[in-house]
Amino acid sequence: MSNDQLKLVVIIASDSDANRLMKALIEQGYPATKISSTGGFLRRGNATILSGVEENEVDGVLSMVKAECHARTEYVPVQTLPFFGEGASPSGPVEVRVGGAIVFVLNVERFEKT
Ligand code: 2BA
Questions:
Q1: SS3 at position 66
Q2: Which residue among 41, 46, 50, 75 has the greatest number of ligand 1 atoms within 8 angstroms of its CB, and so is best to mutate?
Q3: Are the C-beta atoms of residues 99 and 74 closer than 8 Å to each other?
Q4: CA of 98 to the centre of ligand 1 (A)
């Protein structure tokens, strides 16, 4: 990996999608690190995957994210949400997006391997 146009792809996905995505990335030869994380809104465990790749590999990583992480909707009880009890809250279940992925692509200023 050269320092020239290195990008850090940060992917936040559900645990089950992230496991499949990790497997697919590694099989295709993309480096990847999975970190356990927690969503601030739903407060559910999710996973953050870091993949440092050349600029011309970013689209390859993104197409694997699209193939493995599918968004769907789920209804969660309003009592489990952080804003419950703080003023005007909706009653009954609330529709939320689960699965799918949130992706940030960052420029890497410097890469060192010791
Ligand atoms: P959570 O914060 O647990 O959010 C889970 C899902 O709940 C979100 O899905 C979104 O559909 C919904 N949601 C979040 N905040 C909301 C709100 N204030 N009102 C109504 N619905 C809300 P995604 O957007 O796909 O996000 C999935 C996970 O990705 C998030 O889990 C969070 O861990 C992370 N994430 C999303 N956007 C982010 C950002 N801009 N920066 C850092 N992390 C982010």
A1: helix
A2: 41
A3: no
A4: 9
Look at residue 80 in the predicted model and tell me its pLDDT.
Answer: 79
pLDDT level of residue 84 (50, 70, 90 thresholds): low
Among 62, 73, 67, 72, smallest CA distance to 11 is for: 62
Can you tell me whether residue 25 is helix, strand or coil? helix
> Are residues 103 and 9 in contact, defined by beta-carbon separation less than 8 angstroms?
yes
Say if ligand 1 is within 6 A of residue 41 CB.
yes
Whether the CB of 46 sits within 6 Å of ligand 1 = yes
Q: What is the rounded distance in angstroms from the CA atom of residue 78 to the CA atom of residue 90? A: 7
- Position 2 scores a pLDDT of 60
